[in-house]
Amino acid sequence: MNLGFLLEVALGGLMAGVLYSLVALGLVLIFKASGVFNFAQGAMVLFAALSMARLSEWIPGWLGIENLWLANGLAFVASVAIMIVLAMVIERIVLRPLVNQEGVVLLMATLGVTYFMDGLGQTLWGSDIYKIDLGISKDPLLLFEGTFQGGVLVNRDDIVAAVMATVLVIVLALFFQKTATGRALRAVADDHQAAQSIGIPLNRIWVIVWAVAGFTALVAGMVWGSKLGVQFSLAILALKALPVVILGGFTSVPGAIVGGLIIGLGEKLSEVYLGPIIGGGIENWFAYVLALGFLLVRPQGLFGEKIIDRV
Questions:
Q1: pLDDT digits (tens, 9 = 90+) for 248-304
Q2: Which residue from 92, 85, 100 is spatially nearest to 47, judged by alpha carbons?
Q3: What does the alpha-carbon distance between residue 127 and residue 145 come to, in Å, rounded to a whole number?
Q4: What is the CA radius of gyration of the chain?
């Protein structure tokens, strides 16, 4: 077995898992604050990526800016503002009327938000395939050339994604554990009515968590868009985060990262080494089969909190 090739495949899988994890972070945040799975997270990734792509095209012409980094920075700030405004609109129009409703009602609401954001994104930004140029060289890095024959190729944008994911996980973990707002988010997730009874403003908490989830969607969409181009298949691809949170646990921020890495690594290795034996396409269904297995033996996931009902 060529160890260099094995390491290259493994690193490629881990980097793909990082992108899944970035989307899964948004799912975990929404679930921790509302107790419902947010089907709109994939649409949020697409909408945020479209915003970044189109604004990075338009801003140089509008403001006469030739510096790529400055134009991208302004587009990023503007996209963050757009996602915050979108979070406020969703809270005011969709979530606020549904306070204290059953979880399935909120779930159906997120489905409605999904189709609304798909249509709004197409109307505002267009439906072509757009690119996001982050100024990262597309030439891969050649590592361990002296250790393995031919070395190991690693994409530079994968390294950037890994750094971004690491920073986000650290910041979010500190946010949930060390800040009053983070503790309020956990209280709201446990019981909406009890949280309101002790003075926690549910509406403000939901705006904050949807805005933060929108920010993580923007980071994921930005990196994914620079790799694959911004197109509407991103919304479907982003739903690969569903088996990630099933594996890691719906309430665990570190679990979103670990689950993404496991799935990314597993699907790449199985496609390369098992694909020629049992047929191709393993990469498309591996994550969902693995998630089904976890639902059967450990439904709370690797890091999820076990729910015990006492009667």
A1: 988 887 888 899 999 999 998 998 888 888 777 788 888 999 999 988 988 888 887
A2: 85
A3: 42
A4: 20
Q: Are 222 and 23 in contact (CB under 8 A)?
A: no
* Burial class for 255, CB neighbours closer than 10 Å (0-12, 13-18, 19+): buried
DSSP 165: H
> Which residue do the tokens 């005011």 mark?
92
Q: Across-strand partners of 152? A: 143
Taking the whole predicted model, whether its pTM rises above 0.70 is answered as: yes
- Name residues whose C-beta falls within 8 Å of residue 109's C-beta, 6 or more positions apart in sequence: 94, 95, 98
Q: From 2.40.50, 1.10.238, 1.10.3470, 3.40.462, which CATH number describes the 3-297 domain?
A: 1.10.3470
Euclidean distance between CA atoms 97 and 105, whole angstroms: 11
Q: Which residue's entry shows tokens 């498309």?
A: 284
DSSP 8-state symbol, 135: S
Residues 77 and 84: their CA atoms lie apart, in Å, by 11
The two structure tokens encoding residue 222: 């930005």
- Cα–Cα distance, 196 to 216 (Å, whole number): 27
Q: CB-side exposure of 298: number of CA atoms within 13 Å? A: 13
Query: Token digits for 160?
Result: 């950037």
d(CA 228, CA 230): 7
